[in-house]
Design goal:
Elements lengths: L12 E7 L6 H11 L4 E6 L6 H8 L2 E4 L5 H11 L4 E4 L11 H10 L4 E8 L7 H18 L11 E4 H4 L11 H12 L3 E8 L12 H19 L1 H30 L5 H40 L11 E4 L7 E4 L15
Parallel strand pairs: 1-2, 1-4, 2-3, 5-7
Antiparallel strand pairs: 4-6, 5-6, 8-9
Helix pairs in contact: 1-2, 5-8, 7-8, 9-10
Length: 349
């Protein structure tokens, strides 16, 4: 049976734990979450498991729900639509993330206030990351940082905290492990305030297997990045394609033009026709990019309106003390965040 929320919990905090065959790990994940944040509601989504994942999660105190469509993205989309809370937590059910970091992540969200806090994985020891996963994550971090012009430290982290207004403005179209990429790009494009918090990362429990397939899911993530580039940076993408097309046309056409200027004749008519056609195609591609960019702006405005229609999370006000030092400007000093109570939902921050 699920544990009812603690009356002393200031906000409704919901943890979403997608699981597929996590019998060996999910019980500890649920108990660690309940211990880290008393009163948190833990929802374990059983995604077509063939073992006792659901029974173990329920026994540990989670509310178990079922998502029949396979894939982590399908689970997250369903959960974000069904669950009503003030603060949402997304964490994998494989017991690789440090649950004790969750209070700091929630406090960081409220102190900002931020709408998206990512748990940046810090391996407890060498080998916690599979070699292929670590290399792929670094590569994707660099690609997304370059394309979307914002530093990304851990694109594929499955440990995140969201505000209600972030969740209710997030379309969630991914089906599998590319959901983390979609979440990150949505935060960047919506330009919501966000932060990163280092969290511990460890090996899976003995006997537990990773569901992430290095190459298969890596290609899916790369395809998602390409699709997001098409949707979110169409003018940049199509401008580059247009420029490459026109440069190819120029490279083919210059010798033909030189020959015509020297002899007055076009000896390579197929090449001339191809060059002219490529120029036309290049301009068409540019126009397509301009049109798609206009649609992107309309879509972003609609998303922004949906985002603004939901109240911001209550801000955690951290008292500051002022110290005077002879010959130095007055500088505020923060007090310990742990000493500051979190405001209750519905009360002014």
């Amino acid at each position: 049976m699920p544990v009812p929320p603690d009356e002393s919990l200031p906000l409704r905090v919901a943890a979403i734990v997608p699981c597929h065959d996590e019998e060996r790990a999910v019980g500890k994940v649920v108990s660690d979450l309940l211990e880290a944040v008393p009163g948190i509601a833990v929802y374990v989504y059983d995604n077509r498991s063939t073992d006792r994942t659901a029974d173990v999660a329920a026994a540990a105190g989670a509310e178990v729900r079922v998502e029949g469509c396979p894939g982590k993205g399908n689970v997250i989309r369903r959960a974000l639509a069904d669950i009503d809370a003030d603060v949402y937590v997304m964490v994998d059910g494989d017991d690789t993330y440090d649950a004790s970091a969750l209070p700091l992540m929630i406090r960081t969200l409220l102190e900002g206030p931020y709408d998206h806090v990512t748990g940046v994985r810090v391996a407890d020891h060498h080998g916690a990351y599979r070699a292929g996963h670590e290399l792929g994550n670094r590569a994707f971090n660099r690609v997304v940082s370059t394309i979307f012009r914002r530093p990304v430290t851990d694109l594929l982290s499955g440990y995140r905290v969201f505000s209600r207004r972030f969740v209710k403005s997030f379309p969630a179209t991914s089906r599998a492990f590319e959901i983390e990429t979609e979440l990150t790009v949505h935060a960047i494009n919506t330009r919501v305030p966000q932060a990163e918090v280092p969290v511990g990362f460890r090996d899976r429990p003995a006997g537990s297997e990773s569901k992430l397939r290095t190459y298969h899911d890596g290609f899916r993530i790369a395809r998602m990045i390409t699709r997001l580039l098409h949707h979110e940076r169409p003018l940049a993408l199509y401008s580059v394609l247009s420029a490459l097309t026109v440069l190819t046309a120029v490279g083919l056409g210059v010798p033909v033009v030189r020959e015509y200027l020297a002899t007055g004749m076009v000896g390579r008519f197929p090449t001339a026709f191809l060059a002219a056609s490529l120029v036309i195609v290049g301009f068409i591609v540019l126009v397509v990019g301009i049109l798609l960019d206009g649609l992107r702006k309309v879509r972003q405005e609609t998303t922004r309106i949906a985002y603004m229609s939901v109240p911001a999370p209550p801000r955690l006000v951290v008292p500051r003390t002022v110290t005077h030092a002879p010959g130095r400007p007055v500088e505020p000093t923060r007090v310990a965040v742990e000493d500051v109570p979190v405001p209750r939902a519905g009360q002014p921050a």
